[in-house]
């Protein structure tokens, strides 16, 4: 025989009765004599308390129903079916390709508690947010707080390499980019290499940058014309290296290197 469902009015009366019982227990704890709804000097307040208790109870029941609905089996994520034996395995993509979807996983950075390095080249800080790297000389740098509490600015590729490939074999090893892109700091694109091996890779990638000499260097204090004039005046005689250093605003050791041909070797006296 089917069970008869209670009417909404009956459910409301039942909830109201339960709320009144809760109020009676609360009054008993406080030492207030038992009373019915509407009795006493404040009947409106008593009815408001009953309504509030009923509202809170209905809200809690609604939350429980939502949690129960979320826990149903159809709410669980679907798992991919296993690969069939006759299904061919897709070929492995080439390393360094931009269309590869890498599996994202993270590892803790040694020496920096609270920081996590991810395989895609990002670093998560102590606040749970990803650090925003800053460019410097073509590389990415991030600010971290070490275990001793010191604020340091580290190169991002070296941090990723330390987290996924361990400590460098020696202090002279460099975190080399296998594809030659300095901003590609993925874990599988980094490896510890010596300076000679790194320079050989740059030759293969065509990313070697020749050092800026002479006027092209932003830290240069002399120009090609100054170097030619220094050599000409000293060759004519009647002037000392100290006087030339004071005239051009450089040290006497630089003047000596220019005169002897040890500095600014690419500048010739004939201006070629």
List the helices and strands and how they pair.
Blueprint: H1 8-30, H2 43-70, E1 106-108, E2 116-118, E3 123-124, E4 134-136, E5 139-145, E6 151-155, H3 156-165, E7 174-177, E8 190-193, H4 195-205, H5 224-236, H6 241-248, H7 252-260
Antiparallel strand pairs: 1-2, 2-3, 4-5, 5-6, 7-8
Helix pairs in contact: 1-2, 6-7
Written description of the protein model:
The protein has about 270 residues and is α+β, with helices and mostly antiparallel strands. Among the domains are: about 105-205, Homing Intron 3 (I-Ppo) Encoded Endonuclease, Chain A; about 220-260. About 40% of the residues lie in helices and about 10% in strands. It has a 3-stranded antiparallel beta sheet, covered by helices on one side. The model is unreliable at about 75-80 and about 95-100 (pLDDT under 50). This is HNH nuclease domain-containing protein.
* Rg calc: 39 Å
The CATH architecture assignment of the domain at 106-205 turns out to be Alpha-Beta Complex
Low-confidence stretches: 74-80, 96-100
Helicity, as a percent range: 25-40%
Largest sheet data: 3 strands, antiparallel
Q: Enumerate the strands of the largest sheet in spatial order, edge to edge or round the barrel.
A: 1-2-3
Shape: elongated
The DSSP helix count reads 7
Strand content bin = 5-15%
Average pLDDT works out at 76
Tally of strands: 8
Alpha-carbon distance between the two ends: 111 Å
* Order of secondary-structure elements: HHEEEEEEHEEHHHH
The name of the CATH topology of the domain at 106-205 is: Homing Intron 3 (I-Ppo) Encoded Endonuclease, Chain A
Quickly give the structural class.
Answer: alpha+beta
What is the CATH class name of the domain at 106-205? Alpha Beta
Pfam family, one: HNH_3
Organism: Streptomyces venezuelae
Protein name: HNH nuclease domain-containing protein
InterPro entries: His-Me_finger_sf, HNH_nuc
